[in-house]
Amino acid sequence: LIQTIAWHDGRVRYIDQTRLPGAETYVETASWEEIAHAIRTLAVRGAPAIGVAAAMGVALAGRAARALPVREALSAVAVANAGLASTRPTAVNLFWALDRMRRVAEDGGWTSGEALAEALAQEAVAIHTEDLEQSRRIGEHGAVLIPEAARVLTHCNAGGLATGGLGTALAVLYAAHEQQKRLSVFVGETRPLLQGARLTAWELKKAGVPVTLMTDSMAGAAFARLGFDLVVVGADRIGRNGDTANKIGTYPLALLAREHGVPFYVAAPSTTFDPDLAGGQEIPIEERAGEEVMGLAGVPTAPPGIQVWNPAFDVTPHALVTAFITEGGVIRPPFPGRLPSKWTAPAAVRSQP
Amino acid sequence: LIQTIAWHDGRVRYIDQTRLPGAETYVETASWEEIAHAIRTLAVRGAPAIGVAAAMGVALAGRAARALPVREALSAVAVANAGLASTRPTAVNLFWALDRMRRVAEDGGWTSGEALAEALAQEAVAIHTEDLEQSRRIGEHGAVLIPEAARVLTHCNAGGLATGGLGTALAVLYAAHEQQKRLSVFVGETRPLLQGARLTAWELKKAGVPVTLMTDSMAGAAFARLGFDLVVVGADRIGRNGDTANKIGTYPLALLAREHGVPFYVAAPSTTFDPDLAGGQEIPIEERAGEEVMGLAGVPTAPPGIQVWNPAFDVTPHALVTAFITEGGVIRPPFPGRLPSKWTAPAAVRSQP
């Protein structure tokens, strides 16, 4: 289990993922603004982890306002909720977690700021605990799909660092590894921010799972020359038809998988499914600053003054997805009507594309 | 025209491409070993440019040996030829150029080392001149395929820097640009060595062609959301059936092009076609040191002690190629029997996979 994020004595402790793998740095904060900043700068990232962090951010706001009259405390909590909602647009788990925190605040009839703060902290911790349990079940359901001695391709980081501590795609691989299935895992470095190289390679190495790093552009050669038994990735938002937004570069891997007859699995908790969206065209895709592509760790890699395009996610059409692995089990096509739909976002928390 | 490489007064002058775009550094040398080193380290790269550089390297060896008795001079030239052949295995232009230099040396009946040196220098300059003329004609034939206001995707660098000074894929775009076709060109950065970001963006910017940089992993999103009118890339070696080895990451672009109904063109001179190879499975693919993937410009990007896979090229199956653009014209399928086959490598200069 990775100590991605934890609620600890009224403070939040998280690992600063921007400093991995060079340094394992833990940050403790009592400020929801600092949590928002951590999400925006990808110090905390991965759809489920963003949800957990945002919930804890709201809990921090409640705690900071606990000495205020209830009305003012509720208002401070609402400000934090809105601020956290504006950090990143694509991962729907963020809006789901914030909506859950909002319901706790609004359903209260609170007699004191102290009681409100306590309830918010409990809810945030519950969201974290549920996330860990979901990861465990995703691993359990997914491991069944992993053959003995499988060569597996994953992308970006859908591991402990992307969740409350165990993962989605990597939870499946960890479970198979525990069953002694002798995996070999390939991961693309995941430019521009290198979550594959920096985070997934680090996690898998730590867990003793053999991992091979390549550039994202090498996946085609790997399918053609080495072959894979399966691909498993995480997700940031999944539409009603199964169209899946995930880290940029996922869609070409799905296309390669189909071309080479390799199953392509998406591992995600039910909180990543967005029943409000018919399909992938409606998923808001974050575009980030061009500097991420124009250099690496402060070293410029391109001439100044050119255009840059830097979308953080792409959409894999549902037809390329072999199955979804959720905490409720493995879901195969046809997807419409079979995907989790436990939550519909109220207008107030919908992201603005 | 880019001053990629030139024969100048018994010396070779080349631009050190490893230092672009930060610094425009020209190196002058009289040593064939230094040319071999430049090819090995990618200071000179791109299949046609490697051929030109290798020919000039042999000419340098001839010049260094010009005061020796003919027999010793020929032996020194043969050593250089073999040394240059061992630099990189995939680009067939290298073996073609070296074979041509070998024929000049062996066909001689030389009366002096001086005469041999002069003939080798003339042959190397001729190879360079022919390369420029081939590029010009590739541009001419290819420009016809470029629609007005086209959005074009290319990969790596198949420009002036990859050839004697004008390019293959980029020669097509330069010709269309001169015809005022208002192009917009996208290029992936081309990890690990960033030829797209460092070289193609630099060349196109210099030529006034609007260029947008993205990571290699963004091509899928670009096809799906922005759309392209065509893809045009270069090649390092093409088999008899049209299977094409080119910079790693090319094959997934060809697959995306087919999926989205976009034409995929390969621009290459006849010297890149290898009639000895039936298909792509036989093309020797260079694998380079893992450090290229484990970091960037000296900055580590992954935890130490993991496995790395770093093939420099992939093979695009002929079925994904819409047409080849050569100096002789545009060649459409079925390819067998229609592709250039002017040269068959003698066993002595075949690369060792």
Would you give an account of this structure?
By secondary structure, the first copy, chain A, is α/β, with parallel strands linked by helices. In chain A, the strands form four sheets. Chain A has a seven-stranded mixed sheet with strand order 6-5-4-7-10-15-16. The first copy, chain A, has a three-stranded antiparallel sheet with strand order 1-2-3. Chain A has a three-stranded antiparallel sheet with strand order 8-9-14, covered by helices on one side. The longest helix of chain A has 31 residues, at 113-143. The two termini of chain A are 34 Å apart. The radius of gyration of chain A is 20 Å and the shape is globular. In chain A, 38% of the residues lie in helices and 16% in strands. Chain A has helices spanning 32-40, 47-64, 70-85, 92-106, 113-143, 169-178, 195-207, 219-226, 250-259, 291-294, and strands at residues 5-8, 11-15, 26-29, 151-154, 184-188, 211-214, 230-233, 237-238, 244-247, 264-267, 295-296, 299-300, 307-308, 313-316, 323-326, 329-331. Chain A is built from ten helices and 16 strands. Strand 6 (211-214) of chain A pairs parallel with strand 13 of chain B, so a sheet runs across the interface.
